[in-house]
Amino acid sequence: MACCGKWFGRLLNIGAIGGLTTACVFLFLQLQVVTFKMTQEQQQLDQLKYQIEHQQQSQIQELSDQVHQEKSMATYHMALTFTLLTCLIAGFHITSHLRNMNEPTVQRKILAILWMSPIYGITSFLSLVFPVLEGYLSIIKDFYEAYVIYQFLSFLIAVLGREGDRNSVVDVLARHEHLDPPYKCLNSFYHPHPDESDWAMANAVLMECQILVMQFVFFRPMTSIISFVLFTVDGNEKDDSSSSFSYFASAQFLVAMIQNVSVFFAFAGLLKFYHAVRDDLLWCQPFSKFLTIKGIVFMTFWQGMVISIVFHIHSGTWKEEGGDSNTTTESSDENSVASAASIQNLLICLEMLIFSIAHWCVFPIDEWEKDYRPKKYEKLGMGFKDFVTDVNMIMDHRKKSPRDGLSPTSSDDDDIEPTIPPGTT
User: Fold this and answer.
1) Cβ 230 vs Cβ 251: under 8 Å
2) The dihedral of CA 264, 269, 272, 278: what is its sign?
């Protein structure tokens, strides 16, 4: 009996253990099912969240693209308007000279100069619309800049010589004393030698000025093409390990130095000729003409540099505040460069309109007519001198008041007998 009770107790223990094991397995399976369902629901929530965020980002991106497109279209319309007005004014000015070609030798140089505004305006507009072509179009602008500088020297020579007579220009230079001697490194171009006579010295000085300016016509396009090629190669091969001073040891820096030296010699030759004959050319106001030519180049160059510096400073400030990733940094740099270039091109389109009007004023058509006399304009004023005169007149009348012992009717004219009308006694 006792043995049966013992076996019965063991069976109960085994049954209890089996029941607990079964319950644990059931609870484990149920927990796994719940976990699986929760994982699926979480995935669905994450997917739904991603879809919502992606949809919002796409909508924001579409709205941003639409705003950017409308802004770009407004910029294109403004630039196109300025460029068309520039071409119309310059075109009418050019045709006016063609219709009144009284001095063909001189006016041909003027026509070459007048083309500068529309060429700059058209190339800047195309660079604004097609940024990929900006490097190629800048080469065209650089070449024509150098060409116009030489054409301006040719213009001054043609004004002195008329009819293309170079010897008459040499005669004018020979009349001036204390001419700066030409560079000895160019002696092979001087025939006769400058030491032989004053005429030979003047001829050598004129030849020197022409050589110094003409070299710019050849060096400027060459350096622009080399700079563009180097910039393209460096843009395709980015080196993040390069320091900020690596530019001074690069080929681009060498090309920039050669270009600056070429510019220096070109303007040295131009200014040397101008200072030698400025009194003979004073009637045609050559300095104002030169300002309208070189003002285009200087204004566009320094203006572009200032805009680029401002955008790079703004981009660097943004990086310090939170631009950490390399991708974001590169995109920010590209956007800043593109924005600076677009603003620069838009401003050039506007400035070419202003310079085309300035060319109309400083290169008048009637300047080359027979018996032309320079027009003299009165000083710009607002009538302040006349106003002060009226004030002095009123103060003088006040001094002749009765308080000074004078009657209102008394004056120095009392000795003059009044006029008696006819028929009165």
Assistant:
1) yes
2) negative
